[in-house]
Amino acid sequence: MGYSTTAPYVWDPSFADASDCLLSSDQYVIKAQHYFVKGLIEIPVIGGNDVFSWGVWVSLSRENFARAADLWDISGRESEEPYFGWLTTELPIYSSSTINLKTHVHTRPVGERPLVELEPTEHPLAVEQRTGITLERVREIAEAVGHLASDGSE
Fold it and tell me: What is the tens place of the pLDDT at every residue in 70-86?
């Protein structure tokens, strides 16, 4: 259960052929100055063992990105301390912007996307991550995301 974005909100198609830019399914670099990793914001679904996941992009410092990249295929990388980052995915179903929410990126075992933990604020997304959502809310999200995709907005 979840939805994912293919690139951070700052992606521009002109970057695709630039030698100092990279967009893969897991990492993104702009002009060798801005660094991003893809992770999951996991939200527990109340009344079960399921989680709803948002596949999102988080900007990291150059140092943290380099460290994460160095450990990308190394067994045991999940023991790494979390990296501070800024959420760089707009989730338009929320009334207030999700851009630049503070996060901690938790590396997980090789082959698993990092877990993105939002700073515990009153932003609706952060509240949902802390408290969980109902199956009805999952349906609402599915309808909203489906509507956005069908009208070309996302």
Answer: 999 999 999 999 999 99
